[in-house]
Amino acid sequence: MDKNKIIGTGLTGLVGSRIVELLPQFSFENISRSTGVDITKKEIVLETIKNSSASIVLHMAAKTNVDGCEADKQFGENGEAWKINVLGTANIVEACEKTGKKLVYISTDMVFPGDKPLGETYSEEEMPNPKNWYATTKYQAERLVSAAQTPTLIIRIAYPYRANFEKKEYVRVFIDLLKNQKAIKVVEDHYFTPTFIDDIPLALDLLLKTNQTGIFHVAGKEAVSPFIVAQKIAEMFNFDSSLITKTTREEYFKNKAIRGFNLSLNNDKIEKLGISLTSFSQGLEEIKKQLV
Ligand SMILES: NC(=O)c1ccc[n+]([C@@H]2O[C@H](COP(=O)([O-])OP(=O)(O)OC[C@H]3O[C@@H](n4cnc5c(N)ncnc54)[C@H](OP(=O)(O)O)[C@@H]3O)[C@@H](O)[C@H]2O)c1
Fold first, then answer.
1. From the CA of 63, how far away is ligand 1's center (Å)?
2. Residue 48, CA distances (Å) to 1, 10, 38, 138, 176 in order
3. Which residue lies with its CA nearest to atom 24 of ligand 1?
4. Which of 55, 133, 180, 211 would bridge 1 by S-S if both were Cys, CB 3.0 to 4.6 A apart?
5. Per residue in 190-242, pLDDT tens?
């Protein structure tokens, strides 16, 4: 098996495409619906992974739209969120077990309930207790990965943001709106520690090089709310901050998926291996430099 080759799902997505851009030392083999592999179809997943010389499977494919997943909850195990996120992962796990490949799974801060007071963080040792359906499916997938009979690594990330990609996450959505002098109403009572996207390939490379297994958090060092994010953007880009007004989770996420109060992740475990993760303020400076 080729140690420098990674076969991956979700490599065309927001996170995956940046991993491919920043880790040229690896060769990547993409599997997605666009290459004819739907991860919910077991036989094709098994065949494709068996036929690959890669020693690592990086599994990122998921239904990632949190509110879209919530709408699937009524369909339970027959809904798309469960099929892609849980059954799809079960197929990947089985293929890794059959081939002895190492499995790296990308998960989320949302597996935690988010009921900690501000200033506290969740460590890898703490028990998840997801509050919405997306997070429930991601946690079920984590459990399958952790129980796999092959070496596994779970990397939990939080609200990743990046400068350039066709799918715009919240940071670029806020930048665009404020730049165009549009008023925005943003949540003030939902805190998280956003992952600067370039830290994900950095962490992945380190974790693979040092042959780690188990769970690692890879998030920013600073807890922010969408309201703080918008304010920091206005300050950094000299936009009019009077365009930003506050709302609450209760109002904003009404009839949507529940989000916890404080999802902040603790990064000590990975930082002890020798990397320093980017705070949101530093990340925003990088975004400003990278924006094209
Ligand atoms: N973005 C976030 O805010 C965030 C936060 C925390 C954790 N995460 C996790 O990070 C990972 C990557 O997220 P992302 O935002 O980069 O994802 P994304 O941009 O939404 O991309 C999703 C990827 O999954 C693939 N995919 C979806 N359904 C598939 C299927 N049935 N079979 C094969 N491939 C399928 C898509 O490829 P095709 O459409 O070509 O098949 C696409 O490459 C996910 O596991 C997500 O749960 C994301």
1. 6
2. 14, 15, 11, 23, 40
3. 61
4. 55
5. 999 999 999 999 999 999 999 999 999 999 999 999 999 999 999 999 999 99
